[in-house]
């Protein structure tokens, strides 16, 4: 039927090669929506909650639902409430058996549940990419943090090794995006010190990922680390004069503690402030 033909709509908003073409609109329901133009159509998402607007099992997201199940299981394990029937049976609810490495014994996310969580994570990925293009950095921090929590849940309670590990390849890029957005938000607020702290946290989190993976030697060569370091180097010269005194004090403390790696970093920062 002609009312379903999107040709006119899509021609009025052509895709732009080399950039994320995103916009915010007001929906007919009075709520804001996010749209991203792609080659073969458009992604249309809610700005809050689950991007597709669905409420699985009455929750804002599958992640919220599964975290609620986990909390109820933990309460029951402590003798504080009724065990959810799906958890107790180990049937369609996806529990029973042993959890993933480090997880709560008895609580398991089935392969189907992990797959559904991964599909949901893709929705949030598309949204935070669009939000970043619109400089909605608070929204990016919210959605990247949420996806990292989903990664943690699958890693702890996934039924198979694949379920527990497949998302780990994306942890570094998501950590980078969160740190970058937190820094951009602080810069926009005129808070370079907080921006520097956000970048340092992101770099520390990335280093931990590589150390846990047994690949610390690859840390410095990754695109994520180089991007955050580039932001950091550009930011240091913009710090107020009072920051120079603080850096000098930190340098002296690092030398006293024989933390020569940190001392070298602080010397570089002071040198950049003087240039």
Which tags fit this structure?
single chain; 3 strands; 7% strand; mainly alpha
Q: Which regions are unreliable across 5 or more consecutive residues at pLDDT < 50?
A: 83-98
Q: How confident overall, as mean pLDDT?
A: 87
N to C succession of SSEs: HEEEHHHHHHHHHH
Rg, alpha carbons: 23 Å
Helix content: 55-70%
Distance linking N and C termini: 66 Å
**Main sheet specs:** 3 strands, antiparallel
DSSP, total strands: 3
**Strand ordering within the main sheet:** 1-2-3
Which word captures the global form? globular
User: If helices are DSSP runs of H or I spanning 4 or more residues, what is the number of helices?
Assistant: 11
Q: What oligomeric state do these chains adopt?
A: single chain
What share of residues are in beta strands? 5-15%
**Which structural category do the helix and sheet elements fall into?**
mainly alpha
Can you walk through the features of this model?
This protein is mainly alpha-helical. Helices cover about 55% and strands about 5% of the residues. The protein is built from eleven helices and three strands. It has a three-stranded antiparallel β-sheet with strand order 1-2-3, with helices on one face. Helix 5 (about 135-155) packs antiparallel against helix 7, helix 7 runs parallel beside helix 9 and helix 8 runs antiparallel to helix 9. It starts with 6 loop residues before the first helix and ends with a helix.
Write the SSE topology:
Layout: H1 7-11, E1 21-26, E2 32-38, E3 41-46, H2 62-77, H3 85-89, H4 111-133, H5 137-157, H6 161-165, H7 171-188, H8 192-212, H9 223-235, H10 241-256, H11 260-274
Antiparallel strand pairs: 1-2, 2-3
């Amino acid at each position: 039927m002609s009312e379903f033909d999107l040709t006119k709509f899509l021609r009025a908003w052509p895709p732009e090669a080399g950039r994320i073409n995103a916009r915010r609109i007001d929906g007919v329901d009075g709520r804001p929506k996010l749209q991203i133009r792609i080659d073969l159509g458009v992604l249309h998402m809610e700005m809050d909650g689950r991007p597709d607007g669905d409420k699985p099992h009455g929750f804002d997201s599958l992640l919220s639902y599964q975290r609620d199940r986990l909390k109820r299981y933990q309460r029951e394990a402590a003798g504080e409430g009724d065990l959810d029937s799906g958890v107790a049976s180990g049937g369609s609810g996806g529990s029973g058996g042993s959890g993933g490495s480090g997880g709560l014994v008895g609580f398991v996310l089935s392969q189907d549940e992990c797959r559904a969580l991964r599909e949901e994570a893709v929705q949030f990925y598309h949204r935070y990419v669009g939000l970043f293009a619109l400089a909605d950095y608070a929204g990016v921090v919210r959605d990247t943090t949420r996806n990292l929590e989903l990664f943690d849940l699958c890693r702890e309670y996934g039924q198979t090794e694949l379920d527990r590990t497949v998302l780990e390849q994306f942890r570094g890029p998501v950590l980078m995006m969160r740190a970058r957005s937190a820094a951009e938000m602080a810069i926009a607020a005129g808070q370079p010190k907080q921006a520097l702290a956000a970048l340092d946290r992101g770099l520390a989190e990335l280093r931990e990922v590589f150390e846990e993976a047994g690949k610390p030697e690859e840390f410095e060569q990754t695109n994520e680390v180089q991007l955050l370091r580039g932001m950091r180097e550009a930011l240091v010269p913009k710090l107020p004069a009072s920051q120079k005194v603080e850096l000098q004090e930190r340098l002296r403390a690092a030398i006293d503690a024989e933390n020569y790696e940190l001392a070298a970093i602080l010397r570089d920062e002071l040198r950049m402030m003087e240039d």
